[in-house]
Amino acid sequence: MRKNMILTVMLFLLMFAWGCGDSGEVKVYDVSDEAVSSHEEVTITAVISQRDLEQNIFSFIECTNGTPYDLIYHGGVGIYNAYGDVITLSDLADGSVVDVCFYSDTMKLVSITKSGSAYTKDSVTKFAADVANGKAKYKGTTCLMAEHVVAFDKGSIIDVTEINLEDQVTLNFYNDVLVSVNIELGHGYVRLTNHDTYIGGMVEIGYDVIVPVTSDMLIAVREGSYTLRINKNGFSNSKPVVVTRDNETTVNIGDIAIPTGTATFTITPTDAVVYVNGDKIAGHTYTGLYGNYDVKIEADGYKTFNGGFSISKTVNTFTVNLVALEDEDDDEDEEDDSSTTESTTEEPETNVSSTEGTTTEESTTGESTTEDEGEEATPTDAEIPTGEVTSNKITIKTPVGASVYVDGEYVGIAPVSFTKVVGAHTITLYKSGYLIKSYTIQAANDGKDDEYSFADLTSLLDLVE
Prior knowledge:
Elements: H1 2-20, E1 29-30, E2 33-34, E3 41-52, E4 57-62, E5 68-72, E6 78-80, E7 97-103, E8 109-114, E9 118-124, E10 127-130, E11 135-138, E12 141-153, E13 156-158, E14 168-174, E15 177-185, E16 187-193, E17 202-205, E18 209-212, E19 218-222, E20 224-232, E21 235-243, E22 248-252, E23 260-268, E24 273-276, E25 279-280, E26 285-289, E27 291-298, E28 304-311, E29 315-321, H2 328-331, E30 352-354, E31 358-360, E32 365-369, E33 389-398, E34 403-406, E35 409-413, E36 416-421, E37 423-430, E38 437-443, E39 450-453
Parallel strand pairs: 6-8, 12-15, 16-22, 23-29, 33-39
Antiparallel strand pairs: 1-2, 3-4, 3-7, 4-5, 7-8, 9-14, 10-11, 11-12, 12-13, 14-15, 16-19, 17-18, 17-20, 20-21, 23-26, 24-25, 24-27, 27-28, 28-32, 30-31, 33-36, 34-35, 34-37, 37-38
């Protein structure tokens, strides 16, 4: 009986407890305080840094502070342009600036919308990042650059200094600050061989690559098909060249090497001394490469002749009659051709009568002077402007053993130092059996020596699967 009574009381208590409960409500307690689960939507403006569709993870970097976010992507995510129109994932390029809406508790994406506070500049060239000063330059324009700027090359994130001056890029800005860069057209490298006759001249490749020809050079050039033009001292030639991204192209110049010819001067008086490009030559015959040259001819009792001539075939002959000093006053008011003597050669071309009583043959031109400071050299190759040369040095410390090229010209094996010249420069690192790598650096006239340590080069064997 007592046992039945206890069971009845327990049953009553259980029924009472069920009847007092609020149906469907669940309360979660943490120690003694009630915990409330948040399902709040959060919106940030960020750069798309990575899309992993296999894992359904999208990565973003917030524009204002550089905070990274890894958010979950799913089929219900809305994707829109800045006007609210529906677009597809393919319309969102790497580095796009977007307004990202997501749930703060689950980190699931709600929507991705192209930001109306962002703008893009396409097909930009001559881009160089000045990381130390938080700025970037392109085609003479300077802009602010975010400390957390993101750069992309073929879908992979790279350091912004790896963007070459010859690359063509897309720039993405948020509130007028550069937040991402995407390489549209990358660069490869051109190496010249058998080009000894052109050393000291100029080579032009592509859109705006114009550099001096040196004995060892490795030139960064935007990918594409071009005509390589090479010239020295008035002689020029060309070859087609195809530059592929991240690869080295070797161009053999041997078949268009500058030929050699002779220039023989018939001079009155016969004991005159001839200088070609400032150097005294033996006799009156000069042997040299095809091209243009400066010539100076001197003789006692005669006015000095200063002019130029061209070697354009195997044998070239020129006749020059110097003016005697005692005849100078008589000749001042005469016409140019009144004191010249015509001469002919076996292969006459252009007979040009010079002033002051001298005669030159073929493409020779010039004038007689009595003072050397009156000389004016014949223009040859175009001069390429260079930055201000400082008394400081730039040192490339690593990768040790790599050949270092500065703007295409070889400077030595790392670690190596060279003169600091103000401006943006391309540092190219080469080592046999490794991928070529280049970086863009900025040199300022700040009275300091600069040092750079770059990452090790990638072995070609590591790329073999």
